[in-house]
From TrEMBL:
Protein name as catalogued: Membrane associated rhomboid family serine protease
Subcellular location: Membrane
InterPro entries xref list: Peptidase_S54_rhomboid_dom, Rhomboid-like_sf, Rhomboid_protease_S54
Pfam families according to UniProt: Rhomboid
Membrane topology: Multi-pass membrane protein
Amino acid sequence: MLSKRNLKNVIKWPLGLLALMWVVFVIDYYLTGGLLSAYYGLHTRELAGVPGIVLSPFFHGSWGHLLSNSVPFISLTGLLVFFYPRLWPRVLASLWIGTGALVWVLGRHVTHIGASGVVYALAAFLAFSGIFRRDFRAVAVSLLVLFYYGGMIVGILPGQEGVSWESHLLGLVMGIFGAYVYRSELEEHEVKARQKKITRETRKKEPFLKEDAFNKTKKERENEAFWEKLKELSERERLKR
């Protein structure tokens, strides 16, 4: 059952992060003329580009760039928070920083900005987590993400002008890796399901009769046979005398 706290998180965090992206874009685009993204974007393999590992998803080059990332970001983040209420803070932080770090190390020597890498990481995590976990809810989310966002796969192809395809590709890799790493980190409903399964498997049915019921009868028969034999031997001894 969805708790009030989780419902609050589903609304608060996706909307809050998206609102921050929009505020940063307006300030950078209209007040600084793109200087913020130039300074704090992700510059690959440069010390000055290290802050961009965390900050670059907040910067966008145009309204079109921002809008294209807004809908998938808020929907995928909402799905993550909704279906992984205990795990989502670690997952989001790992995917966010991990994708940026991979792009910093492996990306082309250009300034990378935009939340698309995080979007690809979220989509890949949600799509593959169900496969690795084999949980009904996680599988349902996987199918939903694959249905709506499966076409994003073309974004990993190089050669698209003005598109950081490395962010898309490495975000995809990071999402799959994250889904595998966190596969054993169970949510509350998964813990309860496993406990019920273990209880069913280990519970023994009480027998109608006690286990030693027939054994006792057998022992009694053996005792009777012993005394009969002893009596017979005693009778023989008596007759011999």
